[in-house]
From TrEMBL:
<keyword id="KW-0812">Transmembrane</keyword>
<dbReference type="InterPro" id="IPR000675">
    <property type="entry name" value="Cutinase/axe"/>
</dbReference>
<feature type="transmembrane region" description="Helical">
    <location>
        <begin position="640"/>
        <end position="667"/>
    </location>
</feature>
<dbReference type="InterPro" id="IPR000601">
    <property type="entry name" value="PKD_dom"/>
</dbReference>
<dbReference type="InterPro" id="IPR013783">
    <property type="entry name" value="Ig-like_fold"/>
</dbReference>
<feature type="signal peptide">
    <location>
        <begin position="1"/>
        <end position="30"/>
    </location>
</feature>
<dbReference type="Pfam" id="PF18911">
    <property type="entry name" value="PKD_4"/>
</dbReference>
<keyword id="KW-0732">Signal</keyword>
<dbReference type="InterPro" id="IPR029058">
    <property type="entry name" value="AB_hydrolase_fold"/>
</dbReference>
<keyword id="KW-0964">Secreted</keyword>
<dbReference type="InterPro" id="IPR056861">
    <property type="entry name" value="HMCN1-like_VWA"/>
</dbReference>
<dbReference type="InterPro" id="IPR052969">
    <property type="entry name" value="Thr-specific_kinase-like"/>
</dbReference>
<feature type="domain" description="VWFA">
    <location>
        <begin position="280"/>
        <end position="413"/>
    </location>
</feature>
<dbReference type="InterPro" id="IPR036465">
    <property type="entry name" value="vWFA_dom_sf"/>
</dbReference>
<dbReference type="Pfam" id="PF25106">
    <property type="entry name" value="VWA_4"/>
</dbReference>
<keyword id="KW-0378">Hydrolase</keyword>
<dbReference type="Pfam" id="PF01083">
    <property type="entry name" value="Cutinase"/>
</dbReference>
Length: 679
């Protein structure tokens, strides 16, 4: 019999052998699917088995977390709250024994990646099922499970997470936010393993999350409180194996877990984070003679513009371009580059003078392209608002710009063109009163100075920018509708200057619904192992597509509706991955993530432990009544074989039956591989 056929037969035999027990055992299907305000999602500890929890959970929390959960179900708070009615789900993943952390293979990284993949997928599934309830999740982990819980917390929107509860965290950073216990000043073995030469570790980004965190470490726990020079495995796992070992500590830990859940039940969820990212807004304003009353209205709208932008983002920037026509002293120029200084923006508005023109059409497209050449933040919500009262040349003299050309530039399809020398230069001004005569305002502009030239260089493609038009002219409105629609913006006809402020606010509010891309990857991955890139924390309205560039070489490697994808990095060193999220209106946002691709030999493994005689130290295990825990089926070599979380609901539905086969194959494969290296 060939190898693959033998493997298939072995899996079939395992399936038939495990099926009766698995069907009678508690599974995910046996649990209530009702949605509460909070749910506890657990990641069992290294080497732990499953436990019987009746129909209250799927039994995969492991004995350490299970006893804390059991205590929290019967230990009331001052208000009488307990965990008795809170749904608990244990994430199925390998959870290799702690004494194997130091073995120079990919098993620990594979195990964590499976916990991350299945955990993030379960949260996405439950969030969709319980969206109307607003269910939030406490991610609870022990030992290796804490790393998986931390990774999942970073994969999904922060608003989904009610807290992270961890015991004996191998990724612990000494005295970091939320770290407590007698060993809080120690370093975790996993963090030491992946630590860089400068003392930092990619896992430290977890502590930047603004979610409730409780990470407890015993003094001298060899997993979360190691010494700088260590033997492994240690002679005594005791401090790591007895969390909740006394009644007092068990009550304290149960109280902490219960407190997280009660807070999530009784306090509103934080904002979903869609308004916390950066936002860039450029204005392109016609400053020909007939625009004087609209310029006055634009100045009056400055505060409303600032308020609307700050409601979208605390990291907002605003900029200003003015345009006239070919043959005037200038065609278009940047008055205020993108800046967080809203006072400078208002001053720039006050300095605008309406003059020139005298006929129509105007150089609207040059004004737009000048503004599109701003120094856009690719991760920001972006928008360009044009305010004018005269139609555009189409095609435009000198530049040859057309509506189609402007549209392609704004969508990031066509590169920036080379503009004539009369474009891109600002002038020194002194502010005039908003109601000053146009001629007086124009005379205040005296000395031309080179300033705030277009940031984009000819031939460069900008990130996609939605265009919004505030049009006081029917012909201009008709010209702008195809452009604004194609770029994901909108056209707002304005019948009088009084409508400027309202229209600006409407444009900003609409722009705030554009996607915000967020990309997460394991900070440290092994060369040759698959790792998951996750855009689950991205925000968008309606449907969206996810485009992944694995190495930021400018080429999109994979596009689809799945927010996660697996990729194998073969070369060691630092690499950046890029995600572009595009909604159904064509609006997009980009995110980058740094990945440290390492070779096994570059990791900081501990020295082999001296011989301890015939006895071998063991990682904590449950009592004899527990049963082997199901786990996903990792491949024998090469790491993850999965490519995303599509269809995860069906996989979770099969639960104990199919995944039970995996643990047998995983353990057998690992043992065979280890024995083959020692024979």
């Amino acid at each position: 019999m060939t190898g693959p056929n033998r493997l298939a037969s072995a899996l079939l035999v395992a399936f038939l052998a495990l099926a009766p027990a698995a069907v009678s055992a508690p599974t995910a299907q046996a649990q209530s699917t009702a949605c509460g305000k909070v749910e506890v999602v657990t990641f069992r500890g290294s080497g732990e088995n499953s436990v019987d929890d009746g129909d209250r959970s799927n039994g995969l929390s492991g004995p350490t977390l299970q006893k804390i959960i059991d205590k929290a179900r019967t230990l009331p708070s001052a208000t009488g709250y307990t965990l008795a009615d809170v749904k608990v789900y244990g994430v199925p993943y390998p959870a290799i024994p702690a004494e194997e952390y130091n073995e120079k293979d990919q098993d620990l990284f594979d195990s964590i990646e499976y916990g991350r993949l299945f955990g993030s997928g379960y949260l996405q599934k439950r969030h969709k099922e319980c969206e109307s309830t607003g269910t939030r999740f406490i991610l609870a982990g022990y030992s290796q499970g804490v790393i998986a819980a931390r990774e999942v917390a970073q994969d999904v929107p922060e608003s989904w997470i009610a807290g992270v509860f961890g015991l004996g965290d191998p990724a612990q950073k000494a005295n970091a936010r939320g770290v407590t216990g007698g060993g809080a000043n120690g370093t975790g073995i996993y963090r030491k393993l992946i630590e860089k030469d400068d003392g930092t570790a990619s896992s430290d980004s977890f502590y930047d999350l603004l979610v409730p965190t409780f990470l407890f470490c015993h003094d001298n726990d060899p997993v979360c409180d190691i010494t700088l020079r260590f033997w492994w495995p240690p002679a005594d796992f005791g401090p790591h194996s007895n969390y909740g070992g006394t009644d007092a500590e068990l009550g304290e830990l149960a109280g902490q877990l219960r407190g997280m859940a009660e807070a999530a039940e009784t306090t509103p969820a934080p904002p979903d984070g869609s308004g916390t990212g950066p936002a860039d807004l450029m204005f392109a304003i016609d400053t020909t003679g007939s625009m004087s009353p609209y310029l006055t209205a634009a100045v009056a709208s400055a505060k409303s513009t600032a308020d609307a932008l700050h409601a979208v983002s605390s990291k907002a920037r605003v900029g200003l371009v003015e345009y006239r026509d070919h043959g005037d002293s200038y065609v278009a120029r940047t008055v205020v580059p993108l800046t967080e200084d809203f006072a400078a923006f208002e001053s720039g508005l006050r300095g605008l003078g309406a003059a020139g023109g005298g006929d129509t059409p105007e150089a609207v497209y040059t004004g737009l392209v000048t503004a599109l050449g701003a120094d856009w933040n690719r991760s920001a919500t972006r928008a360009l608002i044009v305010l004018g009262d005269a139609r555009a040349h189409d095609p435009e003299p000198v530049t040859g710009l057309t509506a189609a050309a402007v549209t392609d530039i704004a969508k990031g399809v066509a590169p920036m063109p080379a503009l004539p020398p009369t474009v891109g230069t600002a002038v020194a001004r002194t502010a005039a009163e908003p109601d000053a005569p146009a001629q007086e305002r124009e005379e205040e502009t005296q000395t031309a100075v080179p300033e705030a030239k277009i940031a984009a260089t000819p031939g460069e493609k900008i990130p996609a920018v939605p265009i919004y038009a505030l049009s006081a002219n029917d012909e201009l409105s008709a010209q702008m509708v195809p452009i604004t629609t194609a770029t994901g913006g909108s056209t707002f006809p304005i019948g009088s200057p009084d409508e400027v402020t309202k229209s600006v606010v409407r444009a900003v509010e609409d722009a705030s619904t554009a996607p915000t891309a967020r990309l997460k990857a394991a900070g440290t991955v092994l060369a040759g192992n698959k790792t998951t890139l996750s855009g689950l924390a991205s925000s968008y309205v309606g449907d969206a597509t996810f485009a992944f560039d694995f190495d930021t070489d400018g080429t999109i490697d994979l596009t689809g509706s799945d927010a996660t994808v697996a990729h194998t990095y073969t070369a060691t060193g630092g690499v950046k991955a890029r995600l572009v999220v595009t909604d159904s209106r064509g609006r997009s946002s980009e995110a980058l993530v740094d990945i440290d691709v390492r070779a096994l030999e570059s990791l900081h493994y501990g020295e082999p432990a001296p011989s301890m005689g015939p006895s071998t130290p063991q990682s904590p295990t449950p009592g004899p009544s527990s049963t082997p825990a199901p786990a996903p089926n990792p491949p024998a070599t090469g790491g993850l074989a999965l490519t995303g979380i599509a269809g995860l609901g069906a996989m979770i539905g099969l639960g104990s039956v199919l995944l039970g086969c995996g643990v047998l194959l995983f353990v057998t494969t690992r043992r065979r591989r280890r024995h083959s290296t020692t024979d």
